[in-house]
Design a protein that fits this description.
The structure is a homodimer. Chain A is an alpha+beta fold. Helix content of chain A is 32%, strand content 25%. Chain A has three domains: 280 residues, Beta-galactosidase, Chain A, domain 5 (Distorted Sandwich), CATH 2.70.98.40; 182 residues, Sandwich (Maltose phosphorylase, domain 3), CATH 2.60.420; 242 residues, Glycosyltransferase, CATH 1.50.10. In chain A, a hairpin with a 2-residue loop joins strand 26 and strand 27. Chains A and B meet through helix 10 and strand 22 of A and helix 10 and strand 22 of B.
Chain lengths: 742, 742
């Protein structure tokens, strides 16, 4: 059994940034890094907001961090007690990841006696704009001498940003009309680019007799609570913080103020209960039990915790950033990670969220069409790094040459065309798993037709020759740029054509709403003809005659054969880029991440198992796994090849990526740390679709278990076509029970 | 008037390598760098041979330097007098470039008196395997004291190589059977790669009483001539050297020995006369007189001298290397330089040489087909750097990254597909100017069909779209790699199709030999249909609506606009490469050399003069002129736009490139110096086709003079369709006189 709690004892300055990710709490609207209440900007404090962005000057456009309403520190007899400045006697942080509750406990040997500080906080899963914190202190001492205590608490608007500051203006104030007891403090920040407003509202409850004074300095608005403290007695401060932006509601300020006042009225404990109940509901449909491997069960459910923390439930059209809500890394942008690595978790446990993620893509179709047009193409070319409206935050220059300090031209934005197919894949997967045409009727059908038009416009053929090809692309393996006929990309384009054909031939006539939307805007017969032709003639490289291996792209087999170890020996600088035109991997067979293997996972039914395993065996030793998207693809395909023992280490690598807290956090001077939700989603897919072997057969949910050596069994819920199922797998037998409506 | 002699006084160690090029003598079979007889390997001595190559280990394959039969130095009373070791009192080198005779004169203040050393030598234009030298010494002194003199002379087989040594074996010997007076010394070197043999044979004449002893040491075989020398008397040594290779003749050794013996018998002076007479003959059909600008006339005719020095006249199928016969730079390989920049000179002055150059391409068609096949294409893809048999000496890695020391992948070899069209252009130009179909009948027609097949196989089209395109190429401007629809390349491919069509539609039926060769090997009707379709549909970018500028390739106009000056400011290292994926020019509009402008020169008849000048004005400030092939293209096009004053500086830059001796000689530690025959040819084209405006109108030779400001007139011979013409241009009038058979 696992206890649903992770903790770390002791204080280590080096772990500050990594703790920020590992102990994160969130509710999809916002994510709060697992930092301490007394931490400031330099400790990477962030209350990271979903779906709102800003750009300053030439810096990268990135999501906003809100002013930090949790900010609190303590002073006893004029001496501050806070980390990292004051050396503690004991220190522990913990996270109840069953309920998204973060706690810290620190003791200091103070002159006045043994000082203990306990804090607890959560980002309410019940009220997405609400953050609550309990802050309690106690001094244990034989004497009865009263202590002059001060708690400074309020809102720290001196926000950590990677490419900020984003607030041109900060309005810090209290509600003048209120009486002291109900007095709110408020910060409104106005963003640079579009003048959006982010409002943070705070009230508190502190029962002991005390005096309050408002202090505004250094972009902080703080209450100074002074009181006489008795040794042996615990003093508890409760804070209620709300966060709203002008994009949420025109009346956002009123809502923000009312929310904290009402929450205070309800009380901390009650709010905690409501919050925890929501979490229990989530686990009810998502907890994965593993019999015989607690480490795996903990790592996996901890991964699911992170997916829950970032799932948008406060809106019906929003997606998830590559680093979730853990900060501004990767610009808070949405990558193909969402559709290809996270979607299945939501599809199987909370289909409404899956729909919300895909609605984001439907809503950003105009942005995708604009991008295609910019490059001279028809149809929809989705953003490689998508922000609001489908704006592509990806730069043409994404990597710094460590030898010259110059920016290197990269082609992720303009050549990684497989992104559009990922969107199609997500939508069709939703349609197939839910059986609902609603998403298609709601704009999804157009997305698919536009993506197919995009690929159709990209198709080239040799004048002497019949087959259609896609040239000058980057596949999932980014170390090999500008290649022709990347198998993954070609196959995904074919999938897109086939999906469009399915709509044009069948689905359009099954739902009058789809027909209504499409018939006047498109020449349906003409498109069908084009896409059918494209699907028939698009070149999909086949397993080679001898070894059964599928060539990753034209010319891959002719590249240098070299081991990853030997390649590493060629590095002249530990941070140098392996890809690009002259990287050490570029002219070798070494690839960054699963590429052909990803394709084989998605289309495994088209190949003999022997081909799957031959390609696994060929590509695995040639894969650096330099992306967190790689391991799970090897894990799942290994399961499909009945090699669970080979799958297991890759599964654990994916599942442990955040709990280990050992992810790469720095690229030169740029912070690239954060959580890895694609890895989490990949771990889930491995467990459910790999080890349990969940799949569809003629529209029916089936399992085909293939457990790793140490596992005795698995049990988990899964939603399919609006019904909840429970899958039970033991070594002896396995079953699927229909539990009815979820 | 010019005096047909260049000279430099004084000795400067720094000028040794540059003098090697500037004072070169040659006869097409071999080139002898303008070094001194006492120089050795470290002074870059080279007797560079045409058309014979060798590769050792991983080094670049390069042409051979023969053992140096001129090697001679002097010792008086046991003291050596030689440069650069002994500081001279006076020193002068000179070149009679009317007759290809090189002289040196050096005086030393010797203990014995004022020592004067005069040498004169030539690479016989009359006997291509023969080199002759006169070596005379004199001591001026009041005293009558005899001096112990020693002349060491023979063959230095310690040869300078860039990627050598190439002789696995050196056989140094004398002809045992001979008497002393006629004794020959001989060196045979056996090459590493294919065991070719290079034989050098030497004999001498020295009339004063002397003793001879043969000394073999340090890869030198030398005669030690000892004699008593009287002050005030001149002593003359004559040397006769022959060079043959086993590729010239199976009996090469016999020929080599007989040649030096016979030459000695004939005598130096007579040999010099015969040699000079041949040069006079060459000038008779090539000298360009310029009235009013001696500097230009000297620079131009000096350029023509270099072209004469490297013209293959000893065989009927050989081409010219990019650095002529000045050494091993650029691997002694044949580039597009020959057809596009040198051919016209020979076509107008010595059509037999032009034919020999083109026959080389016909003979290397199998190599070109093999290269195409290697890359998966049909037809003929000529070598970017062609050695014997059409072997492509170009490497995939041609540039060293100055920041990492790593080799950078370049694409000259595989993407610079315009090379095949240059061959076609050369052949068709020969056909049009000579009116002879012989070259076509002799294999030229197949070359053209195979090149057209190559381009046809490369054509791609968008599936949605009708036009044919050429993707992923490099045009003449090498700073922009892997571009689509490079206008120059597309236009040259169309030219190739049109040439093939002309053959298939017309010429094949005009010459029964052509018909016989082609009809069984090709489906002539099918090819005609294909090529006609290709020519009709191949996309040729047009002048843009607003500015009349033709885009160099897809996307060029969107690149960064930056001045060359500003760009230079971005250099971090003075030797860093401007091109490649991340070079400073790569993502800007700055180009290395004429690209669109070259195309406009070749097809100027297709455009209004306004378009020509608009493109000249647009591209010139964006051109770095980082190649010696650039200036002349701007010069010629300026003439076509009636801007002779703008043409002039570019003309002079081309014409002065070798005489100035200021060319770039080093790239890091690699010697890249040598002569610039393409520049020389470009200067000639500018003078004849630019300033004089020679062109064809309905098959008739016409002129359209456009003289630069300072010129009063021009006069030159020109051969057209087997008749010699004299063109006379003054400010007032111009005329063409037919002088009958040349």
């Amino acid at each position: 059994m696992i206890n649903w709690r992770i903790e770390e004892e002791g204080f280590d300055q080096e772990r500050i940034s990594s703790h920020g990710n590992k102990f994160l709490v969130g509710n999809g609207y916002l994510g709060i890094r697992g930092t301490l209440p007394e931490y400031e900007k330099k400790e990477f404090v962030a209350v990271n907001l979903a779906g709102i962005y800003d750009q300053v000057g030439d810096g990268w456009r990135e999501p906003l961090n809100a002013p930090n309403g949790l900010y609190t520190y303590l002073r006893l007899n004029n001496k501050e007690y806070r980390l990292p400045q004051s050396e503690p006697e004991q220190h522990k942080v913990s996270l109840d990841y069953r309920h998204g509750v973060y706690e810290r406990s620190t003791t200091w040997n103070a002159a006045e006696g043994r000082l203990t500080l306990l804090t607890q906080r959560f980002a309410s899963m019940d009220e997405k704009h609400l953050i609550c914190m309990r802050y309690s202190i106690k001094v244990e001492d034989e004497s009865e001498q009263e202590i002059d205590a001060e708690i400074f608490t309020g809102i720290d608007a001196e926000v950590w940003d990677i490419n900020g500051p984003h607030y041109d203006e900060l309005n810090m104030r209290t509600n003048a009309e209120g009486n002291t007891a109900d007095e709110l403090i408020m910060v409104t920040g106005t963003t640079h680019e579009s003048g959006d407003q982010v409002g943070v509202y705070e009230t508190y409850r502190f029962d002991p007799m005390h005096q309050q004074e408002i202090v505004i300095e250094d972009n902080k608005i703080l209450r100074r609570l002074t009181f006489k403290m008795k040794p042996g007695k615990e003093y508890q401060l409760f804070k209620f913080i709300s966060v709203y932006t002008s994009k949420d509601h025109t009346d956002y300020e009123k809502l923000g103020r009312e929310l904290v006042s009402a929450s205070k009225h309800t009380g901390y404990q009650k709010k905690l209960e409501l919050h925890s109940k929501q979490w229990e509901k989530l686990w009810c449909n998502s907890e994965v039990m593993i019999d015989g491997d607690d480490e795996a069960m903990e790592a996996l459910n901890y991964s699911l915790y992170h997916l829950h923390c970032i799932a948008p439930r406060h809106t019906d059209h929003l997606s998830i950033a590559a680093r979730g809500l853990s900060g501004q890394t990767y610009k808070g942008a949405v990558f193909w990670d969402t559709e290809m690595f996270m979607l299945d978790f939501f599809l199987f446990t909370e289909p409404e969220v899956a729909k919300t993620l895909l609605k984001y893509r439907i809503d950003t179709l105009p942005g995708a069409k604009k991008k295609a047009e910019y490059y001279g193409y028809q149809g929809a070319f989705y953003a490689w790094e998508s922000q609001e409206g489908g704006y592509d935050a990806c730069s043409d220059y994404n990597v710094t040459d460590v030898f010259t300090g110059r920016q290197m031209r990269t082609y992720f934005k303009d050549k990684q065309i497989h992104i559009s197919a990922a969107v199609v894949y997500g939508i069709m997967r939703y349609v197939n798993y839910t059986g609902s045409l609603e998403l298609l009727a709601d704009g999804g059908a157009e997305v698919i037709l536009e993506c197919a038009s995009f690929y159709y416009d990209l198709l080239v053929k040799k004048v002497r020759g019949d087959r259609y090809e896609l040239h000058d692309v980057i596949g999932p393996d980014e170390y090999h740029e500008r290649v022709n006929n990347n198998t993954y990309t070609n196959r995904m384009a074919k999938y897109t054509f086939d999906s469009a054909i399915q709509i044009l031939r069948k689905l359009v006539y099954q739902d009058v709403r789809i027909e209504e939307r499409l018939k006047d805007r498109y020449d349906l017969t003409g498109l069908l003809e084009q896409f059918q032709d494209a699907s028939d003639r698009l070149y999909i490289p086949e397993p080679d005659q001898k070894g059964g291996v599928i060539e990753q792209f034209d010319g891959y087999f002719a590249l240098e054969e070299v081991s990853i170890e030997e390649l590493k020996g060629r590095l002249l600088h530990d941070k140098e880029y392996w890809g690009g035109a002259y990287g050490i991997a570029t002219h070798t067979k070494v690839i960054k991440q699963a590429d052909v293997v990803t394709m084989l996972n998605l289309f495994s039914q088209d190949y003999e198992e022997e081909i799957l395993s031959k390609n696994w065996e060929y590509y695995e030793p040639r894969t650096e796994h330099g992306s967190s998207l790689s391991a799970c693809m090897y894990a799942i395909l290994a399961c499909k090849c009945h090699m669970p023992e080979k799958a297991y280490p890759f599964f654990m690598k994916s599942a442990l990526s955040d709990i280990s807290g050992k992810g790469k956090e720095w690229a030169g001077l740029i912070y690239i740390g954060g959580t890895h939700p694609a890895s989490s989603g990949g771990a889930y897919m491995t467990a459910i679709e790999g080890f349990a072997g969940v799949h569809l057969e003629q529209g029916e949910l089936k399992i085909k278990p293939c457990l790793p050596p140490g596992w005795n069994g698995m049990s988990f819920p899964i939603i399919y076509r609006d019904e909840l199922y429970r899958v039970e797998i033991t070594k002896e037998q396995s079953s699927i029970h229909n539990l009815g409506k979820p």
